[in-house]
Structures are given as structure tokens and as C-alpha cells.
């Protein structure tokens, strides 16, 4: 007797999302529909090519269904889970309206995205739905529909503390997702404390992502060139202090764990890939929110603050290039 597969909608088939869709299809318990934009034509014709440290060389991967938009995906629903694996850039737009047409009473929304404070708008818009956190340690990029997956997929999935949907139900929904995502090649576990896990991950992202994006070097070169000791360790210590002020006590050894987590490759963090691709970066959720919490709680964080200010300038440069911001023809000067 064949068991009906769980229907999953994926928005954001980049480095992380495509490996997530592959992991789910490979595990065999779900049927994934991916909404593709820039990759739509190439992938419908040829599929994604994948070079994966977990799954090997895959010449052509297509999920069960491919759709051009969320509206177009509805014919493959209703969906039990919607995975949001886009870059989180709230200053230019939100995903809540994008996913809304596919959200029904029984849909769980899983945010597999870096950063802190990413869930507020989704929980406000869908107060009765389970909203789950996915924190991924993986190294994966998508360049022109080719996925280069360099560091093993390790995913923690938990319930956002502020998600008021009936707790037991939400936990069960979360544990089911862990079960259908897990396979013999990856690691996926239930996350007991989303807040702790997100602050822990931020130790890497707020520092290494930011400095690599600003300097244009990967994390290996940053260390060889001296920046890890001169900047990263100090900025990481600040993240620990800010997390503490927010009620999360991280162990000191997380600093060395994160610094060593890309060994032995010259690894380009996702924010550096954004710079290379001319894309917007996750400045506010990775850097801005931490700096705002530091300010609110009176924690000194000069390194994080400077990194944030520099990232904001780079972000505006990208926004101008993309036509999202217009600089006055005549330079405004103080009168
Ligand atoms: N890359 C990594 O190794 C890691 C990344 N992360 C986190 O995972 C998340 C995803 O990152 P990553 O995979 O690198 O991102 P990518 O930039 O590789 O991919 C994002 C994808 O989202 C798509 N997208 C954006 N908006 C929409 C939309 N409205 N509808 C459909 N598709 C959309 C983009 O499509 P299009 O091309 O059309 O713009 C793109 O394919 C981020 O929060 C990141 O911080 C976490 C751990 C590691
Ligand atoms: C920590 C790391 C490098 C991989 O999980 C990441 O989150 C990123 O590239 O943004």
C-alpha cells in the first residue's frame, strides 16, 4: 500500500533551498513543488546540476513540480509545509504577501533563513499557523542553476518561541518535518531552543559574513591575511555579550567552533556570494537587529556597529544599481 506523500511548497531554490528540495525528494516521504523565477526556463529544460558533498554529482535534478509563481503552484497543493528559503531583506520587501495565496489553516511555514527577529511579520500575518525556524549549517551556492554544495547539510528545526499556535500541535508538526527531511546523508534534528540556536549561528553570520562581504575575501583568506584575529574574534565576543543581554548565554568555545567551521576550504559565506552576484545582502536581520538589541540593552558593540554601518552603505550602493534608490542629480550639501 503506498502512503500519500506530504506536499511541500518551496520558495527560494538557491544554494540552501535546492539542497533542501533534493534532501526531501531523496528521503522519499514528500513531494516538492518549487517556485522558480530566474532559474525557471533553464531548470524546466535541463534541471539543476548539483555538485554535492552529501549526494555526489547529479547532472539533472528537478523536484516533483516546478511552478512560475505561488499562484501557479496552487494546482499542486494544498501544501502541508511552505519552506521559505529566500534571502531575508525586510527593508526592500516581505515574503508574507508572496506566500499568502498558498497558506491554508493547516499549513506550517518553515523559515530556513539566517538572522534573528525574522519571524515577527509571518507570525502576525498568520497567527493560527505553525511557524517554524530552520537554522542550517551548510555551505551551498547557486550560480546559474548549478549548485555547489561544499559543507554537509545540518539543519535544526524548532518552534519560534513567539508562535502562539497551540504548542503541542506545533511541536508535532515540527517533529514530522524533521522526520520527512532526514535521510541517510544529512543531519536534521528538532531544536529545543530556537532563540539559543539563532544567537549561536549569529556568532558566525554577524561577523564572518559581514567582514567577508565588506573586504571581498573568503573566510580562509581572511584568516591568512590576519583579519580573523584582529577583527572577527573581537566582533564575536561582542555577539556573545549582546546575546547575554538578551537572555542567551553562549559558551566561549563557540568562537573557535565557528572560526574553524569552514575548515579546510577557502569558504565564501553567503553574504560574499551576494556581493559577487550583485544581490542585496541580509544586512538588517544579520547585523542590524543585533546592533539594535545592543543599543537597547546598553551593551557596547563598536565592531558590530561599524560593520553594520559599512554594510548599509554597500547595500545602498546595490539598491542604487538595481534602481531601488535614486541619488539626487545634484549632490545635496549642508547649507
Ligand atoms: N548559502 C549558504 O551556504 C547558507 C545560507 N543560509 C541562509 O539560507 C537562506 C537562503 O540562502 P541562499 O540559499 O544562499 O540564497 P540564494 O541567494 O542562493 O537563493 C535565494 C533564492 O530565492 C529566490 N527567491 C527570492 N525571492 C523569491 C520569490 N519571491 N519567489 C521565488 N523565488 C524567490 C531567488 O531567486 P531569483 O534567482 O529569481 O532571485 C534565489 O533562487 C538565507 O537566509 C541565508 O542566509 C544559511 C546557511 C548557509
Ligand atoms: C555559517 C555559514 C557559512 C554556513 O552555514 C552560513 O550561514 C552562510 O554562509 O551564510
UniProtKB/TrEMBL annotation:
Keywords: NADP, Oxidoreductase
Matching Pfam families: ApbA (PF02558), ApbA_C (PF08546)
Any one of the GO CC terms: cytoplasm
Domain Ketopantoate reductase N-terminal: 8-161
Coiled coil: none
InterPro entries: 6-PGluconate_DH-like_C_sf, 6PGD_dom2, ApbA, KPA_reductase, KPR-Related, KPR_N, NAD(P)-bd_dom_sf
EC number: 1.1.1.169
Ketopantoate reductase C-terminal domain boundaries: 197-315
Molecular function terms, GO-annotated: 2-dehydropantoate 2-reductase activity
UniProt catalytic activity: (R)-pantoate + NADP(+) = 2-dehydropantoate + NADPH + H(+)
Gene Ontology biological-process annotations: pantothenate biosynthetic process
Keyword Magnesium: no
Keyword NADP: yes
Known function: Catalyzes the NADPH-dependent reduction of ketopantoate into pantoic acid.
Family from the record: Belongs to the ketopantoate reductase family.
Name of the featured protein: 2-dehydropantoate 2-reductase
Species annotation: Lachancea lanzarotensis
Amino acid at each position: 500500500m503506498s502512503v500519500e506523500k506530504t506536499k511541500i511548497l518551496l520558495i527560494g531554490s538557491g544554494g540552501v533551498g535546492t539542497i533542501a528540495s533534493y534532501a526531501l525528494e531523496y528521503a522519499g516521504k514528500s513531494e516538492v513543488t518549487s517556485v522558480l523565477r530566474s532559474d525557471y526556463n533553464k531548470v524546466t529544460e535541463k534541471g539543476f546540476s548539483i555538485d554535492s558533498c552529501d549526494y555526489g554529482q547529479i547532472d539533472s535534478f528537478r523536484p516533483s513540480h516546478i511552478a512560475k509563481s505561488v499562484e501557479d503552484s496552487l494546482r499542486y497543493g494544498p501544501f502541508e509545509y511552505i519552506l521559505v528559503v529566500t534571502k531575508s531583506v525586510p527593508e526592500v520587501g516581505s515574503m508574507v504577501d508572496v506566500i499568502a495565496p498558498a497558506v491554508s489553516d493547516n499549513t506550517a511555514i518553515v523559515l530556513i533563513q539566517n538572522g534573528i527577529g525574522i519571524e515577527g511579520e509571518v507570525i502576525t500575518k498568520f497567527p493560527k499557523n505553525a511557524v517554524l525556524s530552520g537554522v542550517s549549517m551548510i555551505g551551498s551556492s547557486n550560480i546559474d542553476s548549478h549548485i555547489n554544495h561544499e559543507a554537509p547539510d545540518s539543519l535544526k528545526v524548532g518552534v519560534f518561541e513567539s508562535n502562539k499556535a497551540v504548542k503541542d500541535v506545533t511541536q508535532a508538526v515540527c517533529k514530522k518535518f524533521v522526520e520527512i527531511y532526514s535521510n541517510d546523508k544529512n543531519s536534521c534534528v528538532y531544536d529545543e531552543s530556537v532563540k539559543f540556536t539563532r544567537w549561536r549561528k549569529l556568532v558566525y553570520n554577524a561577523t564572518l559574513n559581514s567582514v567577508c562581504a565588506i573586504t571581498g575575501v573568503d573566510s580562509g583568506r581572511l584568516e591568512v591575511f590576519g583579519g580573523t584575529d584582529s577583527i572577527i574574534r573581537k566582533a564575536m565576543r561582542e555577539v556573545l555579550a549582546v546575546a547575554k543581554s538578551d537572555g542567551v548565554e553562549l559558551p566561549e568555545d563557540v568562537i573557535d567552533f565557528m572560526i574553524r567551521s569552514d575548515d579546510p576550504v577557502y569558504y565564501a559565506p553567503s553574504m560574499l556570494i551576494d556581493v559577487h552576484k550583485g544581490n542585496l545582502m541580509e544586512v538588517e536581520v544579520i547585523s542590524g537587529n543585533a546592533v539594535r538589541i545592543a543599543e537597547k540593552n546598553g551593551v557596547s558593540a563598536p565592531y558590530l556597529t561599524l560593520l553594520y554601518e559599512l554594510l548599509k552603505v554597500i547595500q545602498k550602493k546595490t539598491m542604487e544599481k538595481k534602481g531601488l534608490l535614486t541619488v539626487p542629480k545634484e549632490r545635496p550639501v549642508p547649507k
